[in-house]
Design a protein that fits this description.
By secondary structure, this protein is of the alpha/beta class. It contains 11 helices and 12 strands.
Length: 358
Amino acid sequence: MMKTATVTWISYNNCGTFLQAYALQHIVEKLKCCNVILDDQSKLLVQYRPKRNLVGIAKAIKNKLQLFLMRDYLHRVNSSYSRFRELYLKLENPETIADDIDIYICGSDQIWNPSLRFNSYYYLDFTEKTKIAYAPSIGSDVVTEEWMANALPLIKRFAHLSVREEQGAAILSRLTGTEVPSVSDPTLLLPRADWEKLCADETCIKSKNYVFCYMLTPNKAYLNIVHDYCRAKGLDLVMMGIHLKYRKCAAEVLWGGPSEFLTAIRNATTVITDSFHATVFSIIFGKNFYTFQRFSENDKSSQNSRLLNLFQKLNIRGRFVKDNNWDVIEELDYPDIYERLDREKDFSINYLQTALTK
């Protein structure tokens, strides 16, 4: 049986990051290949370049203080992530991995984002074995000269190259001179039934009819809109505990990991988020949802393209919002959405299967 190893982010706590890593491992195994995920703890760099000025220093101090104040909550969160790793992920240390790996796979998520510090590890610079890129995200409509100089020589070494967004595919097609396909995020390749198996038995959510709000960025204006929506619909507000200030924002705050995240979405009446993967799982579980625009349209490091691309492929209109004018938004047509999603799945799985067998 073919032995494969996946390189992706897996050493810091983020629900989407863990779930996409699980999904790619699961689908590769369904395609009759062994797979391990390389634990990137020793390879991970500080991703965003810190600002070396008074504002940057003050922000760093504030972040340290917040982590201290959140220590009890973070213990709960870390325990949930550790449990998920032990139960569902097959990990190996990249420093000691056996030499019998046949194929290395660049996993999904934004490991190729040019806004982050360049790290050649996520471009498989350490091996001469066959390399596959499955849906890594550039996450931007533009790339820098610095990124091209560092990344392009390594990208050209891949036997099979794909990315997640159409915009990234167009960029790499132009730079490499070959047609680079856009394939689906790994989380979209698995059916709902597979995700049901990963849901937590208990989440401590007492509310029966609630809005689940998963906000990566604590945007005050957006939070006000969420509160107005809950009052208008007569729904409780449940928030995922990502920031300390969320303790006072909701009827209930959920401190947990990927399994609790899945359960909260599955059982929600409505999901409101600014997250790509919370949007994805809202679609998988057939939920009414609204996704806030987390980045301004003029932001050079905007990651809006990944959501715009997803909505375009699935013909979802009006759900990418930045105000509260939601009454005029048309209902979600899930039969049509799932028909389109099935076509995207078939294309993506066929790409991966071909890459693994050629």
